Amino acid sequence: MRLLTALVAALALPALPALPPLPAPAAPLSASACTGTGTGTGTEDPGGASDGDIDGDIDGDGVDDAVVGDPLADVEGPEGSGRIEGAGAVHVLSGVAGQGGEATIVTASSPASSPAAGDGFGWSVRRVHLDGDRCADLLVGAPYTDVAGVRDAGAVYAVYGGGRRRPVRLVAPAPEADAHFGWSLAGRGPLVAVGAPHEDADQVVDSGAVYLFEAPALGTGRRLSQNTDGVTGNGEAGDMFGWAVEIGRLGGSAGEPDLVVGLPYENDDGQGVQDGGGKPDSGAVTVLFDVRARPDAQLSRKWDLREILNADAGDRFGYALAYTEQGDTSYLAVGAPLGDGGPVKDSGLVQLFQASGTAEVTPGPVLSRGAEGSPGGGYGSALAFAAGGDVRLAVGAPFDGPDQRGGVHLVPLADPARARTVHGTEPGGRLGWSLAAGGNKLVAGAPDHGPSGAVALLGRNDGAFTLLSPGAGRIPAVTGGASVDFGAAAG
């Protein structure tokens, strides 16, 4: 519970109850069909929507997979050394689009390290393309990992689809205690972004930083903070720059990726040099254009929520981000889970942004549940765009309802009036804590459902869903360990 309790405290929403169990390393990700030339070389179309022939297929069976994190899982230590508490584990759900196949369990292992208690492996997960084969790869954040004796500095593991290459561990060039490198992740084309929101960047407590790595080599990360030349504003204590990150095409040069950074604890004190005034923790989002091509000075644009709506202290604008494309149009969604959605105070909202090949990113419509929203429901805590057909946005509200069973709001952008809400089935289950698209399914985490947590597989056009939990059906239990919060992350 240590990790999720910390997150809930940061969001200032109701506390999570005790959670349940998961598994240890099963088989490696299968090799087979990952061989052959794909388009995921990390060299062409670095801002494009799809980086490979099989966009989300990690194990090479031709069907998109999904990834679920359980960062508090107890796992089995090497060679029967006993259970390692809170090391964390990740499940790769094979063929989730067809609900077929078995899950593979991944734990922290690389030439540089092995699982350790409290690492939080699986706190964040993202499917990416890091090499030139036909399979997707996996980034896993372990932000509570000790690095070279530095407590909770954090690490990220690059796990290659097909299991033909050893995992690679990424760390900050100068690891810092409690920086939580790996708290957030994004990857697109050759670029990987890693958030370290608790880093004391430039000697400012918890001002935060983001590190950029380039595939396929990955190499040493390049560090960005609010005090980097060209980044709008400046770092203040507690801003949490890097709490959320995304990469896309949002108005920079053609073929160059733009980086989006969420700062949900930024004070509302303007565009220039910050003075520590304004409304505390109202939040902000910053876009860094052509971030890869500008190693010396960035070009950026920042939005405080008050530039778009009436903002209040504690709105947490920038808490969650999601990005997608349809044709020449790019969409960015930014969550403010304690914003005033419609008439209901603190019920949460989502601000949409749009861009195209000829138009830089600009604010669009605001989404909320209106009068149906619940105070403190956390609408906007998690976001994901559903794959296929017209653009649809899934919005998590994990604290929704009087019993906090949570829910997912599904919004077709072409006609938001047709939005519908899928409600959780168990009091306190917190459906919508995490969200990700997997093939034609949407994966929604409910980490407090039952003794081990669960994910719901939702279709695009109906309200029914299938619940999956470790130890039941195709999801194996953690060998020699236990699941604790399966569904805390999804990718």
User: What fraction of the residues are assigned to beta strands by DSSP?
Assistant: 25-35%
If you average the pLDDT, what whole number results? 85
Count of discrete structural domains:
1
Principal-axis shape = globular
Could you say which structural class the secondary elements and strand pairing correspond to? mainly beta
Descriptive key words:
491 residues; mainly beta; Methylamine Dehydrogenase, Chain H; 4-stranded antiparallel beta sheet; 30 strands; 2% helix; globular
SSE arrangement:
Elements: H1 2-11, E1 66-70, E2 75-76, E3 83-84, E4 89-93, E5 103-106, E6 124-128, E7 137-142, E8 155-159, E9 168-170, E10 184-188, E11 191-196, E12 209-214, E13 218-224, E14 244-248, E15 258-263, E16 284-289, E17 299-304, E18 320-326, E19 329-336, E20 349-356, E21 362-367, E22 382-386, E23 392-397, E24 407-412, E25 420-423, E26 434-438, E27 441-446, E28 454-458, E29 465-468, E30 489-490
Antiparallel strand pairs: 1-4, 1-30, 2-3, 4-5, 6-7, 7-8, 8-9, 10-11, 11-12, 12-13, 14-15, 15-16, 16-17, 18-19, 19-20, 20-21, 22-23, 23-24, 24-25, 26-27, 27-28, 28-29
Describe this structure in words.
This protein has a four-stranded antiparallel β-sheet with strand order 5-4-1-30, with no helix packed on it. The chain has a single domain, classed as Integrin alpha, N-terminal (Methylamine Dehydrogenase, Chain H). The two termini are 21 Å apart. It is built from one helix and 30 strands. With 491 residues, it is mainly beta. It has one helix at residues 2-11, and strands at residues 66-70, 75-76, 83-84, 89-93, 103-106, 124-128, 137-142, 155-159, 168-170, 184-188, 191-196, 209-214, 218-224, 244-248, 258-263, 284-289, 299-304, 320-326, 329-336, 349-356, 362-367, 382-386, 392-397, 407-412, 420-423, 434-438, 441-446, 454-458, 465-468, 489-490.
